[in-house]
Structure formats: C-alpha cells, structure tokens
Amino acid sequence: MANRFWVGGTDTWNSTAGSKWSTTSGGAGGSSVPGTGDVALFDANSGASTVTVDSPNGAGVVTVQTITLTGFTGTLDFATNDNNVTCSVGGVGGTSGAFTLNMGDGTWNMTGTGASVWTLHNGMTLNAGASTLNILSTSTGANVNFANKTYNIVTVSVTNASGGQVNSQGSGTTFASLTLGSTEGKFNFIPVAMTVTSTFTVSGTASNQIGVVPASGVTVTLTGATATATWAAFHRITASGAAITATNSFDLGGNSNVTISAPSVGGGTVGVIGG
Q: Which one, 41, 79, 106, 183, has least CB within 10 Å?
C-alpha cells in the first residue's frame, strides 16, 4: 500500500501522472497515479482546488483502497464523468474541511475490511446525484457517518459470518432509498433520526437477522413512504408516515407504528449488540 497526496491544484484525476501526485502531503509532484493498492488523499495542502475525476483506472472506473478528504477545502468531482468507484479497504472519509464531494450517477462500492467505510462530517457539502452507494463491509464494527446529508440509493450490509454492527451517525439524513441486507452474519444497524423518501427495506434471513436498534435509551424516528422488513428486530423505533411492516421478525419493545409478525418457527436467537 502506498499513499498518494493530491498536489496538482485544479486539474483532472485521470491516468496521467504528471505532477499531480506526491508521496507526502504538500510534497513534490511526479509520483504515480493511485491504483488498486493505494490510498488517495486530499488534504489541507491540496488547496481549494477542483479535481475532476476521469477514469484514472480505465473504463470510467476509480479503484483504490481508500479516499481520504480530511482537511480538504476544494471539490472532488465525480459527476462530470459519472465514474464508478470501488474502495477495497477503508472507504471514503473526511472528518474536517469544507470540501465538496460530487458523487455523480455512478455506483460506489465500499467493499473493505476497515472500520470506517463512509465517514463524512456536517461541515462538508455532498451532492449525491443519481448515485448508488453500496456499503458492503466485512468489518465486525463498521462506522458509517452519513453526516446529515441527502443520498440517492443506499444499501448497507455486513458480510461477516460473525456479524457486527453498523453505527449510522448523522441525525437528519435523507435517503431516496435505503436497503439493509444480510446473507452472512447477524448485524445491528444503529440509526439516528432519518427520512427515506421512497422505499426502506430490511432483508435478513432466518439465520442472519438484522437489528434496527438505536443507541441505549434512545428512541429514533424513521420517516418514510414504503417500509418493509423480514427477519429483522426493532427496538425503540417510531415510524412516521407509512408504518413499517415486518414479517418473521422480532419486537424488542418501545416501537410505534411498526407492525411485527413473529416467525412461526425457527429464527434462532436474536443477537442484539448494545441497545
């Protein structure tokens, strides 16, 4: 793994290295374009530049280990060319800096093993476009901070046989569509207040249930249109707007406007982390 820091000012992130990348923050350019085994970093020394992404790894694709935006004050623009993005270890993260992230209409796959797979902050600007964001983490404790932003289509799942939990921070987040799914390992989605304008779907299995369980002592309001669940468990969830209808599921108490039908047989033991 190698770090590549953007030092190219306003320019295009493509397959041409030029003087755009450095091995150190604010260092001399001339390093190679970040590839599948590298981390792409945009920080305070990258300046208030606009970086337009154009197929740096070929065929409209960006494939790196992690994209880090902490301290960046410019714009990272995937919307001009609607690139598809895969992060194989960490994901996308930026915990400070008034940066703008334009996602475009591509598909974003966060497939890594890192604990932080999508961590933005309230002071940045997100333009989700018609993007699809797939958070497919194999970590047992994936940290997801949606940061009170508006997203298009989002899918969250933990592909880990031992299960885990996904901390969804960022109260007031809005999704056009949100799907929680698991075919390998139980996991808990720990939500804060959020709105889903189209469909909210929870899809577990008899042996891989999904818990929608806020932090201890907290009741969370989920505002949405159509909401369905199977092989799920709900705790202290208030559905505003359309009711949540859950089949083969478990009522852990404190829910409002959530209709839950327990499984007739099977399902094992619901694994709740925290709560």
A: 183
Flag residues of the chain having pLDDT under 70.
114, 266-275
CA distances from 221 to 80, 134, 200, 243, 259 (A): 36, 23, 13, 11, 15
Size (the chain), residues:
275
Expressed as residue numbers, the domain containing 169 is 153-275
Taking only the tens place, the pLDDT of each residue in 4-30 is: 999 999 999 999 999 999 999 999 999
Buried b (16+ CB within 10 A) or exposed e, 18-32: eebbbeeeeeebebe
Residue type at 228 in one-letter notation: T
Residue 143 lies in a domain: no
Q: Are residues 172 and 131 in the same domain?
A: no
User: Domain check: are 105 and 14 in the same one?
Assistant: yes
Same domain as 67, residue 123: yes
Same domain, 217 and 191: yes
Contact 90, 117 (CB under 8 A): yes
Residue 9, number of CB atoms within 10 A of its CB: 15
Classify burial at 83, counting beta carbons within 10 Å of its beta carbon; exposed 0-12, middle 13-18, buried 19 or more: buried
- How does pLDDT run across 225-262, given as a tens digit for each residue? 889 999 999 999 999 988 999 999 999 999 999 999 99
pTM of the predicted protein model: 0.93
Whole-number pLDDT of residue 119:
92
Query: How far apart (Å, rounded) are the C-alpha atoms in residues 70 and 43?
Result: 6
Q: Structurally, how many domains does the chain consist of?
A: 2
